Amino acid sequence: MRDIIYVSNEIHVPEESDSELITSAVSQILRNAKALRTKRSTNLVVCWGGHSIGHEEYDYTKEVGYQMGLRGLDICTGCGAGVMKGPMKGATIGHAKKRNSDGRYLGISEPGIIAAEPPNPIINELVIMPDIEKRLEAFVRVAHTIVVCPGGAGTAEEILYIVGILLHPKNKNLPFPLIFTGPAGTEEYFERIDQFIGAALGPEAQALYKIIIDDPEAVAKESLSGMRRVENSEKRAMMPIILTGFCT
To answer: What predicted TM-score, i.e. pTM, was given to this entire model?
Structure first.
């Protein structure tokens, strides 16, 4: 209700708005929800992936979350089931083993989704964005690292969205860790994604991410080392990510 009332009373974004106005609205909503915490450590991992996945893939996402929790990393997802739950569930165990009682499990949803599916029980922070496009931008705004597991068409859209943003000339050389991962047997999914990105956008786009198969510990270590690069970057501290033409 906090977000819905705030958007209704304070945020007025016409349907035909430019990306700068939309970005401003997204930032205002996140700040009002206290989702942008500049005084906290640089440690928030956004996890994207399939909603309906098998037991093997789900267990893998839990192990990824567990390894991240051991390293003090917090988790943000779309707050539903599948890949939106697994990393959070694993992270709770990792945090508990490290006596970390301040673990953050941020869920970002939108009215249509939240009406059809309640947030998973691990969520301790919830933000409701006005629509699916602003929700997608919100993920990028809060993330210090993005980890993508196999999914469907929505996951492919998310991958192309973040790759397109990072290809913007004003974001050149911006440290923003992007990792694709899954258990053994998911190689083909990422090979096809990688081939499509290479054919459509070229080697420059392929250099923006790393693919790690069947190695949750390596995913967590790469996330942590990537975050240190983010933390040490003056550019990232000033939030320079440009989202021109992606949220219309």
So the answer is: 0.91
